Amino acid sequence: MIAGANDDGLCLLEFTDRHALPKELEDLKLLLHTEIVEEEHEIIAQTKIQIEEYFKGVRKEFSIKLNTPGTEFQKKVWAVLIDIPYGNTRTYKNQAARLGNSASIRAVGKANGDNRIAIIIPCHRVIGANGDLIGYGGGLWRKHHLLEFESKVNNNLSLFDCDRKSV
Length: 167
Prior knowledge:
Blueprint: E1 2-6, E2 9-14, H1 21-32, H2 42-56, H3 72-82, E3 90-91, H4 92-98, H5 105-113, E4 126-127, H6 140-153, H7 159-164
Parallel strand pairs: 3-4
Antiparallel strand pairs: 1-2
Helix pairs in contact: 4-5
């Protein structure tokens, strides 16, 4: 994974093989009016520790300060994503309803895809209405792995049983 931060918070946590990573980096340069430099940063160090704890199965919530530049709609979508409990899933339709507009499913999906902070803003927890794993920029195989991992850590029945229970 690659992480980016400034004093305002973590603004990037992404899989290095993500196809959209170069665009995300360019977008951040424009949105934050900055250049990207490789150096140590306290927020990146904290992120590394918390992500390692997540993958050890001992961290289910994150306390990293976030810096998520975007439109007001994107920020609302990302805030609703953070509310999805560890080991659970929601549908795009449910996410749209939580924003007060059930018809905004496609816009919600687009904003999920624009999320630049993987795992911490858990867009991997959003699934299709029929329970299918759809729409993950990090790859559907990775989405499946993350959901299965969380399910096992949470001692749920299985990924697919969890999907059927989605709200």
